[in-house]
Amino acid sequence: MQNYLFTSDIFKGSRYEKGHPLDMDRVWPSVELIQLMGWVNEEQIIKNKPAEIDELIKFHDLEYVKALKKAEEELDLPDYLKRKYNIGIGNNPIFSEVFSRPASAAKASIKAVEMIANKQAKKILNISGGTHHGRKSEAYGFCFLNDCVLAILKALELGFSKVLYIDIDAHHCDGVQDAFLNNENVTIISIHEKNRWPQTGKLEENNIKNILNFPVSESFNDSEIDYVINNAVIPYAKSIQPDLLIIQAGADMLNGDPQSRICLSNNAYWGAIKDILLLCESSIILGGGGYNPYLTAKAWAGNWVLLNNRDDLLDSDMPEECSNLLSSLKWNNSRVRMGIPNQWLKSWRDHDVKTIVSSEVISLVKNVLSIKNL
Fold first, then answer.
1. Distance, CA of 187 to CA of 102 (rounded, Å)
2. How far apart are CA 84 and CA 175, in angstroms?
């Protein structure tokens, strides 16, 4: 069985409104970097169309989905629908692909589960997925649909009995946690920055049977994510013996991302994903947060070689055509006002930084495992 890379043509040219954190390109540059490096065969790339309404209402309310589709068709909604569904309000703007774009990501996550269940694939990377804040009948946190929840529901429908969802986005996976509270067939593990929006995923929530939350401080470093993964996440996950693994691999914990205060290197990010992938043969990696296009495109491209057990390829030099692709990306942020740092453009791997595990992180792991009676 081959591994597959999922994408959609809709992501080339689709952006949120001007000034929004997602007014930039992330998905298609990640795919093109993989292609430029010769890391993928074209038959391994699958482009997905939007999910049908009947697929989306496995989780979302029908009237909400209809309103989202109407918003795309008319590029507007009556004020009462905007308020009711949080569409076109705050950081959930109405734009020309406001339905088709998240519906394409959702279709990709659903199809990934179907292909693995049908023994057509072993591992799949859906860079466009990871919209973990989406609510049943409300847009939330830039997320209009929740492809993570839809994928897990499809997995349960197709007979997977031990689904393990691990989220390393800087923001807590509130939408996924709320959808599967106390579900004995689904385990949800999240490592995220504490005291950051959406202000969920607190330590005391570990009292919920199927939930492990690791709210970490903004000083969280490379050694510490390795400590949490290998001293808590992996031992606990092994006891579950999952038959499907879904990783939400948001890249907003990386040093240089404007939406968190955590400063991980991509070496630590990739190291965590590599270790997690050992937990289950049947695996799906999703995208998620990531608001620095240069760092995010590299991180998600690298996840493809991790999926194929070829992380050694990340030690190679970045060829000029890849650097040129990255430098062509437009990002209106103060971090690049004086130019894009060479490190973001010229090398796959960040420089190693010497770090230590703090007593705070050691205590956090002990507290979580104690709550779980481990």
1. 24
2. 18
Q: What is the 3-state secondary structure (H, E, C) of 214-225?
A: EEECCCCCHHHH
Share of the chain above pLDDT 90, in %: 98
**The tokens of 284 are what?**
């799906």
SS3 260: coil
Cβ-contact 201, 190 below 8 angstroms: yes
Kindly report, residue by residue over 42-98, the tens digit of the pLDDT. 999 999 999 999 999 999 999 999 999 999 999 999 999 999 999 999 999 999 999
Confidence of residue 283 (pLDDT cuts 50, 70, 90): very high
Would you state the torsion angle of the CA atoms of residues 128, 132, 137, 142, taken in this order, to the nearest 10 degrees?
-70
DSSP 319: P
Contact call for residues 14 and 288 (beta carbons, < 8 A)? no
User: Which contiguous run of DSSP H or E holds residue 193?
Assistant: strand 186-193
Structure tokens at 337: 């006002």
Q: Which helix (H) or strand (E) holds 123?
A: strand 123-126
Task: Confirm if 155 and 270 have CB atoms less than 8 A apart.
Answer: no
Nearest-angstrom CA–CA distance, 178 and 78: 29
Question: CB within 8 A of 213, min separation 6: which ones?
Answer: 172, 189, 190, 192, 201, 202, 203, 205, 206, 368
CB 300, CB 249: distance < 8 Å: yes
Classify each residue of 64-100 as buried b or exposed e, where b means 16 or more C-beta atoms within 10 Å of its C-beta.
bbebbbbbbeeeebeeebbeebbbbeebbbbbebbbb
Q: Which amino acid is at 70?
A: K
- Cα 151 to chain centroid distance, Å, stands at 13
